[in-house]
């Protein structure tokens, strides 16, 4: 995972989100980009198949980011290359009335992956820390308690064989303006628009402060955060696919031993 070290938030929390570029450095030109990407996604597909077959580990991918950062786009472009068996995307909106009557992790726990599964969270339990912090719905001490609960929750998942990979899609305010305008101008995209998109944009500095605090407090050895530069969509998708492949390879997955010997049966 060394190539990703510059974008990994260390456990000491010493990083400044504003100092990290929303664009990747100029990438080295590859002789055959299309061929390289094809091989990358073939590796991803093989690893996901092994994860599903072995059922010895699970993978939770958490995607967070401001509106238009590309959570839907990443899911659509990266995971189209793997089998739908054992892969599930789960979106989280504002808590329902029933969910509000439980602890804030109640609605999350039942959605995490089982062994053999890969689950992508489009937004997550982190919404229940970020939004209340920005809106002033919870006191600082309550926020700190929730952050501690999240660390313990993710440690539990790790101990039960679930690898937790958390990615913050890092978009600039200028790029967000372009993407919001594109949604306004395109009738096929207008359905995505919500009043909260524009309200949250006015609170950009507060959200950046909340993300700074939250990412620093919850990047652990068991569940690290990675900053994914997201101003360029193709770079964003490629970077996340590479990180996902590296994470799966680090899990040392192995195909299960066959229960039937190939030579035991004859096809008639």
Q: Any idea what the CATH architecture is?
A: 3-Layer(aba) Sandwich
Tally of strands: 5
Strand-residue fraction?
Answer: 5-15%
Helix tally equals 10
Could you characterize what this model shows?
The protein has 268 residues and is an alpha/beta fold. The chain has one domain: Rossmann fold (3-Layer(aba) Sandwich), CATH 3.40.50. The protein has helices spanning 33-54, 71-78, 97-100, 106-109, 127-135, 140-159, 173-185, 195-202, 204-218, 233-250, and strands spanning 58-65, 87-91, 118-122, 162-170, 225-229. A 5-stranded parallel β-sheet has the order 2-3-1-4-5, sandwiched between helices. The protein is globular and about 70 Å long. The mean pLDDT is 92.
From the structure above, extract its key features.
Rossmann fold, 268 residues, alpha/beta, 5-stranded parallel sheet, 45% helix
What's this model, at a glance?
By secondary structure, this protein is an alpha/beta fold. It has one domain: P-loop containing nucleotide triphosphate hydrolases (Rossmann fold, 3-Layer(aba) Sandwich), CATH 3.40.50. The protein has ten helices and five strands.
């Amino acid at each position: 995972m060394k190539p990703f070290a510059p974008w990994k938030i260390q456990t000491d929390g010493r990083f400044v989100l504003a100092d990290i570029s929303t664009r990747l450095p100029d990438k080295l030109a590859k002789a055959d980009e299309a061929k390289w990407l094809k091989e990358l996604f073939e590796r991803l597909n093989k690893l996901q198949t092994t994860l599903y077959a072995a059922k010895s580990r699970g993978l939770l991918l958490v995607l967070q980011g401001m509106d238009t950062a590309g959570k839907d786009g990443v899911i659509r472009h990266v995971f189209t290359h793997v089998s739908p068996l054992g892969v599930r995307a789960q979106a989280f909106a504002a808590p329902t009335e029933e969910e509000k009557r439980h602890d804030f992790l109640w609605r999350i726990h039942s959605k995490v992956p089982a062994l053999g599964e890969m689950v992508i969270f489009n937004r997550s339990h982190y919404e229940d820390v970020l939004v209340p912090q920005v809106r002033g719905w919870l006191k600082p001490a309550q926020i700190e308690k929730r952050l501690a609960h999240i660390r313990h929750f993710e440690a539990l998942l790790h101990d039960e064989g679930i690898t937790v990979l958390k990615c913050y899609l890092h978009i600039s305010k200028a790029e967000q303006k372009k993407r919001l305008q594109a949604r306004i101008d395109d009738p096929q995209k207008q359905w995505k628009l919500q009043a909260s998109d524009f309200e949250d944009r006015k609170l950009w500095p507060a959200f950046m402060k909340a993300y700074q605090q939250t990412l620093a407090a919850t990047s652990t050895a068991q569940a690290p955060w990675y900053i994914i530069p997201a101003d360029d969509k193709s770079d964003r998708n490629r970077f996340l696919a590479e990180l996902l492949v590296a994470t799966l390879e680090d899990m040392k997955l192995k195909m299960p031993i066959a229960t039937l010997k190939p030579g035991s049966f004859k096809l008639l």
